[in-house]
Structure formats: structure tokens, C-alpha cells
């Protein structure tokens, strides 16, 4: 079974976890790396286009060059690919964003005018809205490159996904895990998407029984439905975080519910927020409802070009 992945250190680390699970289940696997336009160009993501990290992998999968594709879920476009099946959504890593700053500093301790690197409009919009007077510097590149800009003194700090650092064994370099009250992560951040060809039922069943997690599917469904309703891509200034929470029903019994918080930047720079809870099985409806509230608050103005 050929498992396709991007060739970055992070992509290889996350693909290895899937390969290990399949090997443990008795499968014979080989990892195949595929170059994507997102790896070959250092232009801002918005200029390269949608699916820059995922389209080449999906084409290789549909064309039979590989049998399984492992993606960072948040890099996938919101439109489904009818050629493929989403066969596995493994337990996700901590979805929060983190700060890596010089001298062990936290966001609140950075001086006014401190240079904070991020290429993400979502992170930039939420950092600006904190009102700390930070100087947001657009950057791209892999995790190593971004952290090096802090070590070299070019930047005071960078904001990254905690999940990427966890997978690379670099959690000890974090100077603050940012509270979702200050910054909501990208929808599906920290989650993986494992696809096979539609109709390849043996592979689909194997993935479902080895790497799939029902609770993760529920939270991802809510976050992604919100994003899809806002017609925004992974580079849009949209944050979302769903959690499975305990609640009491009318009889006083404990039930599991889905809680979703979302935010979107208005063109004024103001961050609009909405949240709701719903049934565990109704992530889609919950996501659409929170998106509808954000649109009503004025988020419609940002559903322009996505990338
Ligand atoms: N935007 C690039 C990207 N795509 C996936 C991750 C790793 C985190 C994840 O798996 O969600 C990253 C790096 C980052 O945002 O710091």
C-alpha cells in the first residue's frame, strides 16, 4: 500500500504515525513523497492558489500513483473531491496556536512595536485586535525556517500551530500556548485527513478501523461547515474551535454535546465572534448556524477571494 505525503519534515512525521498504525494492523506499506506547488514556491499562499499543499497529492491518489494520501486537514479546500473518500480522521493534536518569542516572552510581555512573524491573515487579524501594538511581519516557510528568524534576531516572535511542534518534538521551545479566548485556531488545525480512492473499499475499511476517531470527526464537521458557509479557505481570517463538552439534559443526566466558537475579521479589522452548542451528531448544522450569525454581524464582507 503506497502512502503519499508531502516531503517536509512535518508532513513525513505525521505520515509516519499513519504508516505505523497500518503496519501494526498487518499492512505492507511504503511512503511516497510528492512535491506540491506549496513546497516549490515561497510566494504568499494567496498568490499560489487554493489547495497548494493538497491538489498534487489528491491527483496522485485519484490517478493510482498512491493508495492513501495524508494531509494536514486545515490545508484541504472545503469543497469535497468526488474522486476520493475521507476514510480516516485520527484523534487530533492540541489545536491551539503558540508563540515562540525571544527571551521566553509571552504575548503580553512583548514591547510595543515588537516584530511578530506570521503569514496567516487569521493570526495577523487576531494579533492586531489584541491591541498590543505589535508589528505583524508576513513570513512563510517551514517550521525550522520560521523559528530560525527568532533565533537570528530578525523577529521578536513567531506564531505557529502547537500541533506542528508536537509532531516535530519541539514543544520545549514554546514560550506561550495562546488561549483560544485571545486567538481561535484555524478550522481543523491539528487534525489529519487520510484519504483513499472512492470505491476502494478494502483500503477504506482498513483506515476506518485503524486511524479513524468519531469524536474528532464531529468537531471537524462543525468547524469545517462554519468555514464552508463563510465561503472562505484556509487562508481566510476565520477561526473556529469545537469541543465535546458535558452537559445535563432535562432529566439531569450527563450528555455529551458539541460546542463551537467562531470568529471572523470584518474589513474594519474588528473581530466578530459567535458561538453555539448542539447535538454531537449535528456538527454540520452547528457550523452553519455559527457562520450565519457571523454573516449577520457583518462577516459577509470578507468572503471574497480565498486561497
Ligand atoms: N499552514 C501550514 C500548516 N499546515 C499544517 C500545519 C501544522 C499544524 C496542523 O497540522 O494543523 C501548518 C503549520 C502551522 O500552521 O504552523
From TrEMBL:
Residues 220-295 form the Porphobilinogen deaminase C-terminal domain. Binds 1 dipyrromethane group covalently. GO terms for biological process: protoporphyrinogen IX biosynthetic process. It catalyses: 4 porphobilinogen + H2O = hydroxymethylbilane + 4 NH4(+). Pfam families: Porphobil_deam, Porphobil_deamC. One of its GO terms (cellular component) is cytoplasm. GO terms for molecular function: hydroxymethylbilane synthase activity. Belongs to the HMBS family. This is Porphobilinogen deaminase.
Amino acid at each position: 500500500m503506497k502512502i503519499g505525503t508531502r516531503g517536509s519534515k512535518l508532513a513525513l512525521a505525521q505520515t509516519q504515525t499513519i504508516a505505523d498504525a497500518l503496519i501494526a494492523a498487518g499492512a505492507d506499506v511504503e511512503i511516497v513523497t510528492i512535491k506540491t506547488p506549496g513546497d516549490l514556491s515561497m510566494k504568499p499562499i494567496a498568490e499560489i492558489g487554493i489547495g497548494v499543499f493538497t491538489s498534487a497529492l489528491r491527483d496522485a491518489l485519484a490517478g493510482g500513483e498512491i493508495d492513501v494520501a495524508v494531509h494536514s486537514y486545515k490545508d484541504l479546500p472545503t469543497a469535497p473531491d468526488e474522486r476520493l473518500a475521507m476514510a480516516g480522521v485520527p484523534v487530533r493534536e492540541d489545536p491551539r496556536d503558540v508563540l515562540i518569542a525571544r527571551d521566553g516572552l509571552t504575548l503580553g510581555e512583548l514591547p510595543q512595536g515588537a516584530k511578530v512573524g506570521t503569514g496567516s491573515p487569521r493570526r495577523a487579524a487576531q494579533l492586531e485586535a489584541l491591541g498590543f501594538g505589535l508589528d505583524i511581519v508576513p513570513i512563510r516557510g517551514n517550521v525550522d525556517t520560521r523559528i530560525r528568524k527568532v533565533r537570528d534576531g530578525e523577529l521578536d516572535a513567531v506564531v505557529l500551530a502547537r500541533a506542528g511542534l508536537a509532531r516535530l518534538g519541539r514543544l520545549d521551545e514554546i514560550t506561550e500556548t495562546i488561549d483560544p479566548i485571545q486567538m481561535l485556531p484555524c478550522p481543523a488545525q491539528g487534525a489529519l485527513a487520510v484519504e483513499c480512492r472512492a470505491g476502494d473499499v478494502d483500503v477504506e475499511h482498513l483506515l476506518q478501523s485503524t486511524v479513524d476517531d468519531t469524536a474528532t470527526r464531529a468537531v471537524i464537521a462543525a468547524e469545517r461547515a462554519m468555514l464552508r458557509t463563510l465561503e472562505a479557505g484556509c487562508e481566510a481570517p476565520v477561526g473556529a474551535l469545537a469541543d465535546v463538552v458535558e452537559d445535563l439534559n432535562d432529566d439531569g443526566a450527563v450528555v455529551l454535546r458539541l460546542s463551537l466558537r467562531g470568529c471572523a475579521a470584518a474589513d474594519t479589522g474588528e473581530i466578530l465572534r459567535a458561538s453555539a452548542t448542539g447535538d454531537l451528531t449535528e456538527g454540520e448544522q452547528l457550523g452553519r448556524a455559527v457562520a450565519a450569525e457571523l454573516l449577520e454581524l457583518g462577516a459577509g464582507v470578507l468572503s471574497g477571494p480565498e486561497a
